């Protein structure tokens, strides 16, 4: 990983939850949504927003510079709306997350304000009043946010995730954006757009239907059969709800989920190349001592050829 770079991270509820906890955020988690269903979102209430991952279509551009494909540009956004331009590669997931969190930390947006922690509070206070481009630059230069983000980079001694090649540019590109309610409006916060996009009036009660409608219209612009989308809700820690209502079964289920996330994230951070190499050396040494090394190699070649023929 190159110094100062931002690595690609996986779109995963456990990764995102651990990432924001590393930044000092308390009482928030991510829940993957399997279907575009308003009732599912409502069942997770309070929902602070959703993070949408989609295949970026370079040929889909607004009809005019002043008109997005859906909604309207908020060219004079309110002072309390946090919006940052995307100025760095590979960090759109973290930027979409922050776009929701930093707009849900006060009672004007939600009855359950998010405790964003000292680091993000300092960052938000510092960038208050900045234009979107300058906020994006401040984010790109935040060592705290970059370190938390890169902690979940894929561990590989062979690939530098911060370096993009011509082949990368020609392949499929994916992008994250956030949707959240601020000041009684539903906002689409996409750092690649010049302004926040307003989708009209929206309160906590109407948020599920409103955001699902926006997402359905967006997905409808893709060719039929396109399924490469991912949607996650940003919700209050479900363990807190379980404790409040005295649901022991729900609490145990959520605790098991957290243990699974912790284990999976440990594996993501681990590089097993050295371990695998030592195992192979040990097996090869044993076969050589037994005088069966050549036989073992030939057998492996034969099995590989069989698999290739079946494929």
Automatic annotation (TrEMBL):
The lineage of its organism: Eukaryota, Fungi, Dikarya, Ascomycota, Pezizomycotina. It comes from the Eukaryota. Keywords: Hydrolase, Protease, Thiol protease, Ubl conjugation pathway. One of its GO terms (biological process) is ubiquitin-dependent protein catabolic process. The record marks 86 as: Transition state stabilizer. GO terms for molecular function: cysteine-type deubiquitinase activity. It is an enzyme of class 3 (hydrolase). Transmembrane segments: none annotated. The keyword Transport does not apply. The active site is at residues 92, 175. The record marks 190 as: Important for enzyme activity. Belongs to the peptidase C12 family. Residues 5-236 form the UCH catalytic domain. It catalyses: Thiol-dependent hydrolysis of ester, thioester, amide, peptide and isopeptide bonds formed by the C-terminal Gly of ubiquitin (a 76-residue protein attached to proteins as an intracellular targeting signal). GO terms for cellular component: cytoplasm. This is Ubiquitin carboxyl-terminal hydrolase. Its EC number is 3.4.19.12. It holds the Pfam family UCH_C.
